[in-house]
Design a protein that fits this description.
This protein is α/β, with parallel strands linked by helices. It contains 17 helices and 8 strands. Strands 1-8-5-4-2-3 form a 6-stranded parallel beta sheet, sandwiched between helices. Helix 5 (132-145) crosses helix 6 (156-169). The relative contact order is 0.14.
């Protein structure tokens, strides 16, 4: 059995590695001014030449904007009971985790449900950084509960778990891998309807209350993957900034870096009209579509808020203005990346968190090794944006300027170095660990990190510059130390 499982995993990785390239970025002008060495540059050019000799599928010509309804305001969680009453919900599944279940956000939600006589049952076995195993436990609970609505109160792990429990309880005959993104799963489109889901985020980071995406660790591959469909996005996101008062310092910092990378990656993603293949049916159009004029506005505004308020929010838990604005920035970035997508920082983060050894992040109350999502994402950010800058240098320079860099007379070929150095200073100011070495990795781990990145082409192919295995290796190596 073990041998067969290993062979299955190896076959999957070989398939990903050897798959014919459909990179939509190969048609863009290529600038050799990136930091990657000549060998990697030549491999990328060879990759692009190979692409040009293949029959190119038609490119996209449209983009869609999808977002949950958002309600924002201090104390607005008190309205959630009325919302379910208005939906005529008879049996609500309240999804949370064991720590949050003891804190004011869940208590406020429960009081509102009880006040308005809404029947509910609590599932609080959410795992921080969910796995396929923890998702399946939530699915079983939901299938047995005969629920007609869902309420998620917590961070991204809670909201993603609620989305998946809702989806599979409404599709009881579906195999777990049916809706999981290819190549790990079948990536089937969700054709039926799901039950109403209301999400109450308690962290200012994931933006999951706005998106139709649920991320988890797929344990057989020791890497993250996910499910993406507009059908599973929450009906309503209740953004109550009072809940951010309960976020410890490191949770605030790591959540904030998730916001920042959502915005930076969606803004620098391949333009939507360069993505291919064009879907033959609109139901097949992915949630992550590439940068577009509407997502750009949300991304840029998020970066401005992060620059102004993130340090205050991290180091002063009593600064309610700063924490409220970071909660807002999370929503804005969520709307942006929920339609444009993310790329290499997120794609490379999934094996970082999935291959964690002994590292346990400060301020996280867990009983297992954990590299928080936002920390795993920002670890590679300087290397990633130095690599991608040659494809859209103006956007990288603009982002650096919004983060406080002096951009007067900056040359296009220096865009990547400028943004990378700006990020290093920002990360150092916020006391981020000094690279992957500090998280327990070394150069011997790079092949495994690369292999764990390869199945993430749902996001990595949204990068503006195509990347070879050697390119990924060099970016991981550059990320071993940051300062």
């Amino acid at each position: 059995m073990a041998s067969a499982a290993r062979e299955g995993v190896l076959h999957l990785l070989r398939s990903v590695t050897g798959a014919a390239c459909r990179c939509p970025a190969h048609s863009q002008a290529f600038n050799q001014g990136g930091y990657i060495g000549a060998a990697a540059t030549q491999s990328t050019l060879h990759h692009m030449k190979k692409c040009s000799n293949e029959a190119a599928p038609p490119k996209e010509y449209a983009f869609e904007m999808a977002c949950s309804n958002i309600r924002y305001g201090p104390g607005v969680t008190d309205e959630v009971g009325m919302d379910f009453q208005n939906l005529d919900a008879k049996n609500v599944c309240l999804v949370t985790d064991k720590k949050i279940s003891q804190l004011p956000p869940v208590k406020a939600a429960v009081q509102s449900l009880e006040k308005h006589h809404v029947k509910f049952s609590v599932f609080d076995d959410v795992r921080i950084e969910p796995t396929d195993t923890s998702f399946k436990a939530a699915i079983e609970f939901a299938r047995n509960g005969n629920f007609d609505a869902f309420l998620a109160v917590g961070g991204g792990s809670v909201m993603d778990t609620a989305k998946v429990a809702n989806l599979y309880s409404c599709n009881p005959d579906a195999d777990f891998l049916d809706y999981v993104n290819a190549p790990v799963g079948k990536g089937l489109p969700v054709r039926g309807s799901v039950k109403p889901l209301i999400a109450v985020p308690t962290t200012a980071g994931t933006g999951s209350e706005t998106t139709g995406v649920a991320i988890f660790d797929y344990e057989p591959l020791q890497a993250k993957t996910g499910i993406g469909s507009r059908s599973i996005r929450p009906l309503l996101g209740i953004v109550d900034p009072l809940h951010t008062k309960h976020m410890p310092e490191r949770v605030t910092a790591n959540s904030g870096f998730d916001v920042l990378c959502h915005a930076l990656e969606s803004y620098t993603a391949i333009p939507y009209e360069e993505r291919s293949p064009r879907p033959s049916n609109p139901i097949e159009r992915p949630a992550y579509q590439g940068s577009n004029p509407i997502s750009d506005l949300w991304a840029l505004h998020s970066i401005k808020i992060v620059k102004k308020y993130m340090k205050r929010a991290v180091f002063d838990c009593e600064d309610f203005e700063a924490r409220s604005m970071m909660h807002m920035a999370s929503v804005f970035a969520g709307i942006g990346f929920g339609n444009a997508g993310v790329h290499l920082c997120h794609g490379m983060s999934y094996p970082i968190s999935g291959l964690v050894k002994k590292y346990r992040a400060k301020d996280y109350d867990v009983d297992h090794p954990l590299i928080p999502h936002g920390l795993s994402v920002v670890m590679t950010a300087p290397a990633v944006f130095q690599f991608t800058a040659p494809m859209c240098p103006e956007r990288h320079i603009e982002a650096a300027g919004l983060l406080g860099a002096e951009t007067t007379n900056v040359k296009r070929e220096d865009a990547g170095l400028l943004l990378a150095d700006t990020l290093r200073v920002f990360m150092d100011d916020l006391r981020v660990d000094d690279g992957l070495n500090a998280l327990g990795f070394n150069r011997d781990d790079i092949p495994a990190l690369v292999k764990g990145t390869l199945p993430q082409h749902r996001v990595t192919k949204l990068a503006p510059r195509p990347q070879s295995e050697e390119d990924l290796s060099l970016m991981f190596e550059k990320s071993m130390k940051i300062y």
